[in-house]
Design goal:
Layout (H helix, E strand, L loop, with lengths): L8 H13 L2 H8 L3 H15 L4 E3 L4 E3 L1 H27 L5 E7 L4 H15 L3 E7 L2 H10 L4 E6 L6 E16 L9 E2 L8 E4 L4 H10 L2 H6 L1 E3 L3 H9 L4 E5 H5 L8 E7 L4 E9 L5 H13 L2
Parallel strand pairs: 3-4, 3-5, 7-11, 8-9, 8-10
Antiparallel strand pairs: 1-2, 5-12, 6-10, 6-11, 6-12
Helix pairs in contact: 1-2, 1-3, 1-4, 2-3
Length: 299
């Protein structure tokens, strides 16, 4: 029987790194090898399978159609290989070893500072690597194997995932203080659509806020700002409009040292559901559920 030569995991890692970074030098840096080592590994891979995967020019790295398909398959192969290690870890002590978690920007600065010290204290052998990114890239990274789990606000279409709910996070309307005592809550109908400031597309908080208000004209008239909640609060503090904030941000003190106040949004679905999500059938499901329990207990 003729010998069968298979691509190595290292060659597949080089290929995926080049697709992710679009540059041989940056892909080599991300892979902790020299550029010549990465280039040689990819040439060996192309020779092995007998097709051109990457068109090389002075300025552009362009994947061929078959190269794109093989990258997608390579991601799945690498994810399955990683899960071999996950199986071994799952058989040992809980919450040990490396874990990569993405957290969306409207959760990370308000929840993580309270949670991480306790997690380090109770599970010192857990090496938790964090990535802050919007919901879409976080879910894409989950399915590509770049991250293991995502701390997310639902509803959000994250694909085929398993999840563990943590808690509900109520939505608030934030506005500059005027004379007199503001009402206990703010009806959605009372929001001036021409003065509403929201995060740009890609941040699920924007969609949760607009969905809760159930006013189509808000989507058309609101100003979408490509910035952070902290920056939008400063804009509100300077009289430039009103905004929506999650309760966790209000409780974490985002309005401290400003003239901005906030009141609960009076609407039927004025809440987002915070959850931990991971790939279905992951061998580390018991770890993720344990982590979710820790997050829930300390929220």
């Amino acid at each position: 029987m003729a010998a069968t030569y298979l691509p190595t995991l290292k060659q597949l890692q080089y290929l995926v790194a080049l697709r992710d970074h679009g540059h041989f030098g940056r892909a080599a840096d991300a892979s902790f090898v020299t550029q010549s080592t990465l280039s040689a590994g990819l040439r060996d891979l192309e020779t092995l399978i007998g097709v051109t995967l990457v068109e090389r020019t002075r300025r552009v790295v362009r994947f061929t159609p078959v190269g794109e398909r093989i990258v997608d398959k390579a991601r799945r192969v690498l994810r399955e290989a990683e899960e071999l290690g996950d199986l071994a870890r799952a058989a040992g002590r809980p919450l040990t070893g490396e874990m990569r978690m993405s957290v969306i920007p409207t959760i990370a600065p308000f929840m993580l500072p309270r949670i991480l010290p306790r997690l380090r204290r109770d599970y010192p052998d857990l090496k938790l690597f964090l990535r802050e990114e919007p919901s879409g890239p976080a879910c894409e990274g989950l399915h590509n194997g770049r991250t293991d789990c995502v701390l997310l606000a639902l509803p959000f279409a994250c694909g085929e995932v398993a999840s563990e709910p943590l808690f509900d996070d109520r939505l608030y309307v934030a506005f500059q203080q005027g004379e007199g005592e503001p009402p206990a809550s703010i009806p959605a109908a009372a929001i001036d659509e021409t003065r509403l400031l929201l995060l740009e597309d890609g941040h699920c908080l924007k969609d949760h806020a607009l969905s809760a208000c159930n006013r189509p004209e808000l989507r058309a008239e609101a100003t979408m700002m490509g910035t952070s909640l902290h920056t939008i609060v400063q804009m509100v503090d300077n009289g430039l409009g009103v905004t929506m904030l999650p309760e966790m941000a209000v409780n974490a003190g985002i309005l401290d040292h400003t003239s901005v106040t906030a009141r609960p949004l009076d609407a039927a679905n004025a809440v987002r559901h915070i959850a931990l999500v991971w790939r279905r059938a992951s061998p580390r499901e018991s770890d993720f559920r344990l982590l979710a329990g820790v997050l829930k207990d300390h929220s």
